[in-house]
Every structure is written in C-alpha cells, then in structure tokens.
Amino acid sequence: MQQETEDHANALIGSLGSADAATWQEIGSKLSAAASSPEARAALVQGSRGLDQPSQGTRNWLWAVVVGAFAFVLVASVMAIIVGVFVGARSNPVVKSDLLLSIFTATVGFLAGLFVPPPGKE
Fold first, then answer.
1. Number of H-type helices and E-type strands within the chain
2. What are the CA-CA distances from residue 50 to residues 38, 42, 96, 97 (Å)?
3. What is the pLDDT of residues 77-107, one digit of tens each?
4. 72, pLDDT greater than 60
5. With bands split at pLDDT 50, 70 and 90, how would you rate the model's confidence at 38?
6. How far apart are CA 120 and CA 122, in angstroms?
7. How many C-alpha atoms does 92 have within 13 Å on its Cβ side?
8. C-alpha to C-alpha distance for 70 and 75, rounded to whole angstroms
9. Cβ–Cβ under 8 Å, residues 43 and 34
C-alpha cells in the first residue's frame, strides 16, 4: 500500500510539468478516488494520532499574543487618529482618517467579540 501510494505520487508529480486540461482532470479524479478509499482514510487517521491538543499553558500564551496584538493595533490607531486630528496637516493628510477609523472600529469589534458568549449559551 505504501509503495503503491508513493508510485502514484511520483507519477503525478512527474506529469505536472506538461499538464494540459485533460491531464489535470485525470489527476483530480485519481486524487479523489485515492482520498475516498477506506485505506487512505485509515492511513490519515493513523498519521494524525501523534498530534495532541496543545497544553493549557500554550493556549493561554497564544491567547495573550492574539489579544495583545489587537490591543496594540487599537492603541496605535487611536494615537494615529488623535495625531491626525489635532496635529496633522489638514490640507495634505498622510493617512486618511476613514482608514484609521475603519481599523479602530474593526479592532474594537474583535475585542468586544471575545467577551460575547457563543450563541445558545446564556
């Protein structure tokens, strides 16, 4: 089974260089047939068994990085809006205020969405 899969993969890779529409269709049908076989599904499940869920510490760290990045964007966009309104040259602005306002509102919406319970939960 393993050798047969490698032979198919090598044949497909070798045919990619001079592929026309019919060849691509043939490649797609072979891949579709291979993916729907029970052996391929079993190999996929067996290969994914080594992957574990990340630890709670890793999840907390990733959460802090994402929220910290969005908080940084929020503060930076607020500062840019303030500088643009009060300090910036009104005749020739470097950054359009509507772009900064869009960034600000999108970031606020993301951060607010973190505190909203999922649908169906109270």
1. 5, 0
2. 20, 14, 49, 49
3. 888 877 776 666 566 666 677 777 888 888 8
4. yes
5. confident
6. 7
7. 0
8. 9
9. no
